[in-house]
Amino acid sequence: MSGRRKIVLAAVFIALFLSGCVAKYIKVRLRPPHPVEDISKYRDIIDTTFTPAGENVKYILFQYENKAAHYVNLAGDFNGWCGTKDYHRFDPSIGVMHDDDGDGIWEIVVPLPPGRYQYKFVIDHGASWVQDPNNPLKDYEDGIENSLLIVEE
Q: In terms of C-beta density within 10 A (0-12 exposed, 13-18 middle, 19 or more buried), how is residue 71 classed?
């Protein structure tokens, strides 16, 4: 490839990047689930369907981006997989996530004691169950791969 051709290609790439054609494909990833210190700003999205025992409870923020979803729930071994573990039926009132500003980022804060937890996001009342795309940690339950959260002491 000639030097002139390289310069032209570089100029085209830079022009596309600056115009936003390439930039729209660069996406800011959400953080994996993590503890939040100041729960006052998350008061409206704290999961109150269960209260864990113990003094070392951490408030964990879960986030999932899906602009097309109408409903998103957080299901995990900490909430009976939204009822499916004990009652073999999905309960949409458990683990309800919120997207109050309509930006497609669904959030919930769950109080959890230290331990290992498996979870998935449930889209539109069970239409699909997906692993957390922002969390590389995985584990298995009953032969099914799930996202893994480790809450430290």
A: middle
Q: Report the C-alpha gap between 147 and 122 in whole angstroms.
A: 12
**Cα–Cα nearest to 54, from 143, 128, 114:** 114
| Three-point CA angle 94, 100, 104, nearest 5° | 90
pLDDT given at position 13 = 59
Q: What angle do CA 144, 62, 140 make, to 5 degrees?
A: 15
List pLDDT tens digits, range 94-111: 999 999 999 999 999 999
Residue 88, Cβ neighbours under 10 Å: how many?
7
pTM metric for this prediction: 0.80
